[in-house]
């Protein structure tokens, strides 16, 4: 009886003695790395370098990517201004002073002709002495492409006269109108971009170098040096920028050549803008210098300069680039404002600010609104740099 | 504790202002020659026999025969006593020329800050709480436009459309009738009527920056655990926002005034020139060009003083709001 009840207990289904038990755990040999096996995608992420990760993260910020493309295109256009511009920036057409933009058309009296413009007929309004331009609809003038036009020196070095588009034979082509000397606005905007855009880059390079050096010293040494540097930064930041620019710009003697003035202005703009960068370098360094690898480098006898340059700065280079991107538009705006007031660059150097200097008068806005066109690239490039900077800042810390 | 903090901040201001004054003095003195040399050259060019003895006398009178260091010392000593020096060009004390303009500059700057606050605060909160909505995108974009369009262009466009739509000329800050009259209620009203245009134009850039910063700051706070907890235990969104993250971002909001103040003063100068406001901008440029050094120097000094005071006020407000700052200020630093 007892044997019988034993037989009916839960252990009844067990295999006979000596046979292997069915086990919950696998009998396969233990593989310590098996559980951490990654899909190929994950592996790609884990093995990717920091820059690779940043690129992936940056790519997700659509607006920033578009802005990067826009910036690239605008810089490329400025680089090839000689070829893209229909005229040389100083070519005067005294018969067409302050002409409005000529529309590019494709169809003449219902028939396809290809890109052409109608020539302007000048009529002087004797009442208010305003030059009025009327299109002569009878004779279309075809535009020429990849043609020989105004002579130029490409980048001041290689002479040439090949243009993407030229005015028709015996005609004119002012796509965005002409200014008070009959110079083509489009060509001048293209040439002017070269100056305005490079000022942004050079100015930021100056403030970048200053910011890294000064911020680096303050952050690495800390203590009293840091205190002094911080006060200096506070002082420079508390100075209202434009009045000080005005003061500095008025220092430059009028006898300087326009090119020298250009460099002077760039240096001035750069000298005022390093404080933000220096501050971020400093705060980063203050936290990084406590890391073990810095102590290790110190123990091995590395000099501060080597530690800062080789070990510390590369660690937050991405942050620096992001903050530098955000300061570029400020420099461009600064140049525009200074030149607009007539204290920045001087003709014959052509920049967007110099061009806007002609639009100072309210009458200009009312009568010749196309003289304000240089503002369009200014706004576009500043917006683009801002978006790009936002994207770079998000991407700068890919591990977050 | 708070009093000690404020005292400390005011004490720090003194060396800051001293260094600033030295910087400005150097900058003003950098161009070659001085006002008297220009004057002598101009007189000769006009065919007048340059009265060298008179110029020598004037030079002596203004202390130009002394070394720059000594002149700097006298200038600063004068500034401390409220004596801003003497303008060569206008033949009058600087204070008489600029008094009214400085007041107007202060009014414009102050009104601009208030405007920036009123506009940026609600928009920043809306953008942060409705992240990635159409409202957020639209407002952020408008803000960025304000940042990207040069001040002087905004001023030109405003002038043009105000002329077309309202038929008014908006140049100037007061009605021409009140131009050379002392401050009165009627004049104040006239100023207020003209004030809104420069305020909007100058404020545009600062507002945009502030909206962006407030949005980013608030977004950070909204992700933090304490806010999630507050929401999880059933606080309605509005109350949770008011009670916690908003107070955190208020901090930064106040401290940011110190950052945007220089740009407001700068922007005011350029806009003033375009709109021909009776503020300091146009006078400053003229003074710089003619090397009227006491006029220019005292001006720049005053503008810097204005920003330093602004930073001080924002620091004090911050210390009142945030106990951590005033305690830290007393303990270490």
TrEMBL record, chain A:
Family annotation (SUPFAM superfamilies): MetI-like (SSF161098)
Task: Could you list this entry's UniProt keywords, alphabetically sorted.
Answer: Membrane, Transmembrane, Transmembrane helix, Transport
Q: Does the keyword Aminoacyl-tRNA synthetase apply?
A: no
Instruction: Extract the Gene3D superfamilies matched here.
Output: MetI-like
- Where does it primarily localize? membrane
Q: Where in the cell is it found?
A: Cell membrane
> What residues form the membrane-spanning segments?
63-85, 195-220, 259-277, 307-328, 370-388
* Compositionally biased residues, Low complexity: 10-20
Q: Where is the ABC transmembrane type-1 domain?
A: 193-389
Among PROSITE patterns, the record links this protein to: ABC_TM1
Region feature (Disordered): 1-20
* Bilayer topology: Multi-pass membrane protein
- What family is reported? Belongs to the binding-protein-dependent transport system permease family.
Q: What is the official name of this protein in its record?
A: ABC transporter permease
């Amino acid at each position: 009886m007892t044997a019988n009840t034993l037989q009916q207990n839960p252990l009844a289904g067990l295999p006979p003695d000596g046979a292997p038990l069915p086990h919950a755990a696998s009998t396969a040999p233990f593989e310590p790395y098996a559980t951490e096996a990654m899909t190929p995608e994950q592996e790609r992420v884990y093995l990717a370098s920091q820059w690779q990760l940043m690129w992936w993260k940056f790519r997700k910020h659509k607006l920033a990517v578009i802005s990067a493309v826009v910036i690239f295109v605008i810089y490329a256009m400025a680089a090839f201004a000689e070829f893209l511009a229909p005229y040389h920036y100083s070519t005067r057409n005294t018969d067409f002073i302050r002409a409005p933009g000529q529309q590019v058309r494709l169809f003449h009296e219902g028939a396809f002709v290809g890109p052409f413009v109608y020539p302007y007929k000048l009529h002087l309004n004797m009442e208010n002495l305003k030059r009025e331009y009327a299109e002569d609809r009878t004779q279309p003038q075809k535009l020429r492409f990849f043609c020989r036009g105004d002579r130029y020196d490409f980048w001041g070095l290689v002479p040439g006269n090949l243009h993407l588009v030229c005015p028709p034979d015996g005609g004119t082509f002012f796509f965005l109108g002409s200014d008070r000397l009959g110079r083509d606005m489009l060509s001048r905007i293209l040439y002017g971009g070269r100056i305005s855009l490079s000022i942004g880059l050079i100015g930021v390079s100056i403030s970048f170098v200053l910011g890294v050096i000064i911020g680096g010293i303050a952050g690495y040494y800390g203590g009293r040096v840091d205190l002094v540097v911080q006060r200096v930064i506070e002082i420079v930041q508390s100075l209202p920028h434009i009045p000080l620019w005005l003061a500095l710009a008025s220092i430059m003697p009028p006898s300087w050549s326009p090119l020298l003035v250009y460099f002077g202005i760039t240096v001035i703009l750069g000298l005022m803008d390093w404080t933000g960068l220096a501050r971020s370098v400093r705060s980063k360094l203050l936290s990084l210098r406590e890391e073990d690898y810095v102590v290790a480098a110190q123990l091995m006898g590395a000099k501060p300069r080597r530690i800062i340059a080789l070990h510390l700065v590369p660690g937050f280079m991405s942050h620096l680039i992001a903050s530098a991107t955000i300061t570029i538009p400020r420099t461009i705006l600064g140049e525009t404002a200074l030149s607009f007031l007539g204290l920045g660059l001087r003709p014959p150097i052509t920049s967007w600010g110099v061009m806007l200097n002609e639009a100072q008068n309210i009458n200009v806005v009312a009568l010749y609104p196309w003289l304000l066109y240089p503002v369009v690239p200014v706004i576009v490039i500043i917006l683009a740099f801002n978006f790009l900077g936002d994207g770079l800042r998000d991407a700068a810390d890919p591990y977050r | 504790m708070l009093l000690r903090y404020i005292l400390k901040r005011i004490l720090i201001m003194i060396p800051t202002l001293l260094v600033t004054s030295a910087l400005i003095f150097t900058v003003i003195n950098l161009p070659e020659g001085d006002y008297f040399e220009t004057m002598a050259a101009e007189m000769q060019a006009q065919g007048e026999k340059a009265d060298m003895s008179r110029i020598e006398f004037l030079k002596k009178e203004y202390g130009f025969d002394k070394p720059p260091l000594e002149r700097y010392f006298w200038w600063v000593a004068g500034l401390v006593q409220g004596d801003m020096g003497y303008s060569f060009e206008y033949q009058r004390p600087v204070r008489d020329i600029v008094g009214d303009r400085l007041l107007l500059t202060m009014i414009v700057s102050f009104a601009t800050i208030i405007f920036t606050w009123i506009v940026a605060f609600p928009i920043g909160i809306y953008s942060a709480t409705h992240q990635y909505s159409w409202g957020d995108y639209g407002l952020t974009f408008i803000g960025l436009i304000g940042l990207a369009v040069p001040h002087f262009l905004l001023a030109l466009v405003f002038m043009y459309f105000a002329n077309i739509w309202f038929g008014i000329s908006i140049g100037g800050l007061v009605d021409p009738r009140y131009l050379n009259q002392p401050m009165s209620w009627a004049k104040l009203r006239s100023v207020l009527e003209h004030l809104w245009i420069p305020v909007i134009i100058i404020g545009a850039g600062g507002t945009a920056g502030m909206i962006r910063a407030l949005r980013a700051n608030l977004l950070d706070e909204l992700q933090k655990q304490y806010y999630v907890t507050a929401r999880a235990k059933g606080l309605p969104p509005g109350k949770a926002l008011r009670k916690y993250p908003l107070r955190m971002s208020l901090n930064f909001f106040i401290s940011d005034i110190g950052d945007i103040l220089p740009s407001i003063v700068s922007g005011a100068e350029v806009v003033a020139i375009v709109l021909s406001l009776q503020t300091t901008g146009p006078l400053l440029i003229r003074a710089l060009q003619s090397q009227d050094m006491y006029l220019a120097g005292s001006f720049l000094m005053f503008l810097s003083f204005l920003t330093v005071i602004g930073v001080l006020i924002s620091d004090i407000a911050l210390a009142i709001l945030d106990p951590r700052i005033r305690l830290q200020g007393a303990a270490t630093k």
